[in-house]
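Morning!

This is the sequence you dropped in the shared folder:
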Amino acid sequence: MVNTPEQETAVLPKVTKLFTDQGYTQNSTDAPFEDYLSAGIGHNPMVLVYEAQYADRLVRDDGSIKPDMRLCTCPPPSTPSTRSSR
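The structure's back. Tokens below.
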């Protein structure tokens, strides 16, 4: 959990590559999620989606969620962010 500007400065170079390596992305989570489902984890090993999208596919039981696919969630921060929105 990043809580301070100093922690942000330390972690940002490490996580930036996870997102920039994905290249251009759509304005919605639908297209990346559909790509992930159709091409598998080898194409995009990590995508950001809504929990509801993942749960919907599990409930449908249509085979689109493979056994090696996981939904990872983060707990909300225990204290409100004090970071400025500048």
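Headline: The mean pLDDT is 81.

More detail when I'm at my desk.
O.
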